[in-house]
Structure formats: structure tokens, C-alpha cells
Specification:
Layout lengths: L7 E3 L10 H5 L6 H6 L12 E2 L7 E10 L5 H5 L9 E5 L11 H9 L4 E4 L6 H7 L3 E3 L13 E3 L3 E3 L2 E3 L4 E5 L2 E5 L4 H23 L6 H8 L8
Parallel strand pairs: 1-7, 3-4, 4-5, 5-6
Antiparallel strand pairs: 2-6, 3-7, 3-10, 8-9, 10-11
Cofactor: a divalent metal cation; Mg(2+)
GO molecular function, one term: metal ion binding
Pfam family, one: RraA-like
Amino acid sequence: MIEEPSLLTIVRPAARRRPTAAQIAAFADLPTGFVVDAMDGRGAMDMAIKPVPGLPSRLHGPALTCDNRPGDVMALLAAPSQAQPGDVIVNAVAGWQGCAALGDRICGMARNAGAAGIVTDGPARDLAGIQAAGLPLFCTGLTPNSPVTSGPGAIGLPVLAGGLHVETGDIIVADEDGVVVVPFARIDGVLERVRQVMALEQALDARVAEGETGIDRVRAILDGPGVTWIG
């Protein structure tokens, strides 16, 4: 038999990794597609996680992770008191869809604590109240079913959310297309790659605006021996 676990396990702020202010600010206006391209086409959470209608659909900041058992929100309820201004609370519920992973009051509390927003791999409830709180929220949908507050839960430890490993201090970038996680150790490298991606995208945008109908790589394939033509 095992001992009863602690209701909450919390990593103190001094022991958490956090990007610099400059690193955080550098992601402010980057489209999620550019960030994913800078990570070789990977890094997006499950496509079901989208912005709640009526709320800002742009979000970025360092992750503060919350780990809950399915149907439980103990860690999330404690998260606002542990958040630093600008944190994105990542509320992991093991992808449980049977009840809400949060509601309007926790959104208001997180807003009051200065959080940039909340991302969860479960649904939400209390849409009108969530919209009134005004805090960006990315979730899998809406349900009136309510969770419990039994624990155990953890704040600041690694979680699995939306199919991705997320650690406190990773950068979260989210927009209408979805949610992207940039691992802490890759922040500077991704920012450098994003600059290259942006330059290529801007050059291609200009060519399309001028009437371009294809890309050079595909044109070379069409002109070469790798295509079988019929008729």
C-alpha cells in the first residue's frame, strides 16, 4: 500500500526556468505557422485546442504548467497564486473530455493575477462569464459538466497536454490556427530560424502578388523525368 499523496506539489518560483523579457517579447507577433516551420514542421498541440469565440485569439508567453487528474482541477485553482505576470497557464487534464477543465471564475482569477491566458487540453464551461473575464482561453470546446477539486495535482512540473510534452518556462504561441510549444532550450534557435522563414515567406508573397502560379522546386519536377504524362 502507498501513502496518501500530497494534495498539491508545487515548484517554487525561484526553482522554475523562465525566458528573458526579450525572448518573450520576440514571439509577440509571430504566426504559429512560422514558428512551426522554424521547428521543422512540428510543435503544435492537438488541432482540437482552439481559441474560445469572443475572446482574443492571439496569445504568447512562458508556460506555467498545471497537472490534474481527469475530471479534477485542484492544481488549476492554485495556479493563479503561483503565476507571474505574463505567464500562460497550461492546464493538463490528460485530455479528459467528460467534464469542463475550467470555468469563468478561474479565468477571472488568472486575469487578476496578470496571466496572459490559459491553454487546456479539455473543454470549458460558463461561456458568457469567460467572455466577460476577457482572458484569452484555448480549449477543446464547451460543456456544462463540472469537475471536482480532489487532487492530487502539481504546479510547475512537466505535463503532457494536447499530445506534447510541456515544461514550465517553455514558450507558448497561439493564434486562430492553434497552439505551439517552443521548448525552453530551443528558444534562441527557433527565433533565429523564424527570421529565415519570414524572409522566405515575404519573398514568396511578393511573387504571388505579382502573378506567380507555382514554385521553382515543383516547376523543376514538372520539367524533369520524374513525371509520367498521360494523353
